[in-house]
Amino acid sequence: QVQLVESGGGKVLAGGSLRLSCAASGLRSNDYTINWFRQAPGKEREFVAECSWISAGIRYQEDVQGRFTISRDRTKSAVYLQMNNLKPEDTATYYCNFEFMGRNWWGQGTQVDVFS
Q1: Of 18, 47, 78, 104, which has the most beta carbons under 10 Å away?
Q2: How many CA atoms lie within 13 A of 41 on its CB side?
Q3: For the segment 87-108, what is each residue's pLDDT rounded down to a tens digit?
Q4: In this predicted structure, what is the pLDDT of residue 14?
Q5: What are the E-state strand segments in the chain?
């Protein structure tokens, strides 16, 4: 059973940076698709960024392109989301997601609050 634990959220002023981490355990495959999603109060959960556990493909939501960077370290079974130039509209709970052959695993989320 894959288990994911996010960390690194917090409160930051607009223009600041945060680095979110997702610690993964129970991995039994190399071919996971890894995503970061976020959900703001009163809104649906939305896609933020995606990468592959084994290949180089990466994509981002248009609103975060150029500000956020997704990466992973297989030796540490960890995934990261570096968030720079944060904006108040980035305020949300951020979730790590692993997907493999239609199965999805989620972390509990980490809260990011950006103040202007």
Answers
A1: 18
A2: 5
A3: 999 999 999 999 999 999 999 9
A4: 98
A5: 3-7, 10-13, 18-25, 33-39, 46-52, 58-60, 68-73, 78-83, 92-100, 103-106, 110-115
